[in-house]
Write a structure and sequence with these properties.
Blueprint lengths: L3 E5 L19 H17 L3 E5 L15 E4 L2 E4 L10 H12 L4 E2 L11 E4 L2 E6 L5 H14 L2 E6 L13 E3 L4 E5 L12 E5 L10 E3 L2 E5 L3 H9 L3 E5 L2 H4 L10 E2 L1
Parallel strand pairs: 1-2, 4-5, 7-8, 10-11, 13-14
Antiparallel strand pairs: 1-15, 3-4, 6-7, 9-10, 12-13
This protein binds citrulline (CIR).
C-alpha cells in the first residue's frame, strides 16, 4: 500500500527543459493546471503529498522520478544522464533523507534515471538507455540485490524511440505488465501476463498503478478499455503539456 508521494511544481522555465519530441512548446498555465489535477488525483488515491516548490535552476525538476528510486527497503539517489539534470540530485536529497536516512547512491561513471527503473513486486527491470549506462544499471542491480530484490537489465537503445524504459511499460500488479509492442518480445517478460498497447497509443503505456487504481493519460480509449475489461478502475488525466517535454504520469512523482 502506497501512502506518500513527492511532487515538485513545474517552474516558469519548464519549457526550456530537454525534449526529443516535436509537439510544440508547453503552455505554462495549462501545465500548472494539469499538475494540480495530478496532485489531487494522487491524494484521492490515498497518498499524502510532500509538495516541493518549483526550482527554476532545473527546468526538468518537476520530473522528480528521475533523480531518485524509492523501494520498500530503501532509497537511492541516482545520477541523471542528462547533464542539465545532474544538480537535481542535491535538490531532492534533503527531502529523501528525512524518510530514508541511509540513502544509497549511484556513483560515476554510472548514470541512471529513475524513469528507467520499473518495479514489479520483488523484481526490478532496469533499462539501459541513452540516460542510464551499464555502470549505473549494474550499480543499481547490486544495491537492489543487497535489499533482497532480483533485477534484470533491458537494453532499450534503438527500441521504439522511447526515452526511458517506463516510457514503454508499466507494472500493474498481479504479475501483469502493460507493454508497447517494441518491448513485448523481451524474454524476461515470459512469466508475466502482458497487456499489449496498440502502437497508436504508445504514450499511454506509461500508466501508474496506485493502490488498486490506474492513472492513465487522457485520450487513449483503447488501453483504458483493455484495463477496465481486466477489472481495473482507471482515472484519465490530461497530460498534453508534460508529453511535449517527453514526460509521463510516472515521472511526476516518487511514490512510497
Ligand atoms: C527529460 O528529458 O529528462 C525530461 N524532459 C523528461 C523526463 C521524463 N521522465 C521520466 O520519464 N521519468
Amino acid at each position: 500500500m502506497l501512502t506518500r508521494a513527492i511532487v515538485r511544481k513545474p517552474g516558469r522555465n519548464f519549457s526550456s527543459g530537454v525534449t526529443s519530441v516535436d509537439l510544440g512548446k508547453p503552455d505554462y498555465a495549462l501545465a500548472l493546471q494539469q499538475h494540480e489535477a495530478y496532485c489531487r488525483t494522487l491524494e484521492s488515491c490515498g497518498l499524502d503529498l510532500i509538495r516541493l516548490p518549483a526550482d527554476e535552476r532545473y527546468p526538468d525538476s518537476t520530473f522528480v522520478e528521475d533523480p531518485a528510486i524509492i523501494t520498500e527497503r530503501g532509497a537511492v539517489i541516482t545520477r541523471p544522464g542528462a547533464p542539465s539534470r545532474i544538480g537535481e540530485i542535491e535538490d531532492i536529497e534533503p527531502t529523501l533523507r528525512e524518510y530514508f536516512p541511509d540513502l544509497k547512491r549511484i556513483n560515476p561513471p554510472g548514470t541512471l534515471d529513475g524513469g528507467d527503473i520499473c518495479e514489479a513486486g520483488e523484481h526490478f527491470f532496469i533499462g539501459v538507455s541513452e540516460r542510464t549506462n551499464e555502470s549505473g544499471a549494474s550499480q543499481l542491480a547490486e544495491i537492489l540485490g543487497a535489499f533482497g530484490y532480483s533485477s534484470s537489465l533491458i537494453d532499450i537503445r534503438g527500441l521504439g524511440n522511447i526515452l526511458h524504459l517506463k516510457s514503454g511499460m508499466a507494472y500493474v500488479g498481479d504479475r501483469r505488465l502493460v507493454v508497447i509492442e517494441a518491448l513485448s518480445k523481451q524474454k524476461v517478460f515470459s512469466t508475466y501476463e502482458l497487456v499489449h498497447v496498440n502502437f497508436v497509443e504508445d504514450y499511454a503505456a506509461n500508466c501508474l498503478f496506485i493502490n488498486d487504481r490506474i492513472l492513465i493519460a487522457a485520450g487513449f480509449p483503447g488501453l483504458k478499455r483493455q484495463l477496465e475489461d481486466l477489472g481495473y478502475s482507471t482515472i484519465a488525466l490530461e497530460m498534453s503539456e508534460f508529453q511535449k517535454m517527453d514526460g509521463g504520469l510516472s515521472c511526476l512523482s516518487l511514490r512510497f
